[in-house]
Design brief:
23% of the residues are buried. Strands 1, 2, 3, 4, 5, 6, 7, 8, 9, 10, 11 and 12 form a 12-stranded mixed beta sheet that branches. Helix 2 crosses helix 3. A hairpin with a 4-residue loop joins strand 4 and strand 5. The chain has 193 residues and is an alpha+beta fold. It is globular.
Length: 193
């Protein structure tokens, strides 16, 4: 497991954390270099798209080699690595994607943080802002899926049934966007069984 390179924090002067969920390490699992490592301390840096662990032997933080990392989990969040090739659309970039739901319609989220300036330019206040993009994998093809109409456009013959389900369950894809996406994908998967 400890064959990555030392991770050096580069967020000096930026408010907030570059990491997924919080600045502290979480206990997680990684499938790394053909082996599953369970209950190890992990960070996921959303600025650099790196997974970090602690190297107790050398008392430092270690960046895992992305090409050796097939998937990992933090808390109740499961991430898979997607490597692009000529068969994938341009909007899919090589990196880690959170798998929100896995079924006939798989829902993925790509999380990213950028340092953005807030307030007056003279204040020079930088703060991390998180941006999320959502995708659906359906019958081996990736689609952008950021809202309710995107999901309906992918439903094909099940569109009317899916629309009724969304209306009955008040799924608006606004306040609880990810939860609404998961419910929609799960229902679609039931319809197509």
């Amino acid at each position: 497991l400890f064959n990555g390179i030392e991770y050096l924090r580069s967020s000096h002067g930026v408010q907030g954390t570059p990491f997924f969920l919080a600045d502290s390490f979480f206990t997680g699992n990684v499938y790394y270099d053909g082996h599953l490592y369970e209950r190890i301390p992990l960070h996921y840096d959303l600025v650099t798209d790196d997974v970090i662990t602690q190297n107790y032997a050398q008392n430092n933080e270690l960046k895992l080699v992305p090409e050796k990392l097939q998937y990992f989990s933090l808390q109740d969040h499961f991430f898979v690595r997607i490597t692009t090739d000529s068969t994938l659309p341009d909007f899919i970039k090589t990196g880690f994607y959170e798998q929100l739901y896995d079924g006939k319609m798989t829902v993925l989220a790509h999380h990213e943080k950028l340092a953005r300036q807030f307030g007056a330019a003279a204040d020079n206040t930088l703060r991390y802002t998180e941006y999320n993009s959502y995708y659906v994998l359906l019958k081996g093809v990736f689609y952008r899926a950021d809202n309710k109409s995107d999901f309906l456009s992918l439903a094909g013959a099940q569109k009317d049934a899916l629309k009724k389900y969304m209306k009955a369950n008040k799924l608006q894809f606004k306040k609880n966007k990810e939860a609404d996406m998961v419910k929609t994908a799960a229902y679609f998967s039931q319809l197509t069984n």
